[in-house]
Amino acid sequence: MFKSKPASAVDPATTDTLIGEGSVFEGNITSKASIRVEGTMQGDIHCDGDVVIGENGNAHSNISARHVVIAGEVHGEIQASGMLTITSKGRLEGNVSAANLVIEQGARFTGTSSMRETAEAPQAQPQAKSKASTESNAIHADA
C-alpha cells in the first residue's frame, strides 16, 4: 500500500524535518536530509544535510551537520563539515569545529572555535587556503 524511497535516494539538500514554532522536541534526532528548528529542541542532532535554527528556534543540542545556520539560540557543541553561519540575531553558547565560520554583525558567540580544511571547503576563499588550524579560547563576539 505505501511505498518508501530507498535510503540512498534521500537528498541532503532537501529539508524533510521541521520542528515548528510552538513545538517542543525532546530526544536525539538523526536525518539524512536537512532539518529546520523553529520551535524548541532538546537533544542531539546528527544530520547528513544542513541544520537551520530559525529566529524563533531554541536548541539545547550538540549539532553535527554539513552546514549549520543559527538565527535563533543554541546551547551546545557544533561540528560542521562545511560552513557555520551565525546570523545577526543568532546566539551560540558552545564550542565550534567548522571548515568555515561566519559571524554576522550583532551575533553573539561564547565559546571556542577550531577551523579546519575539508574536501567541501571552497578553495577560492582565503580562509580555506590556510593550512594552519586556528583556535581561540573564550571568544565572546558581539560583532
From TrEMBL:
Residues 112-143 are annotated as: Disordered. InterPro entries: BacA/B. Pfam families: Bactofilin. Residues 120-134 have a biased composition (Low complexity). Belongs to the bactofilin family. This is Polymer-forming cytoskeletal protein.
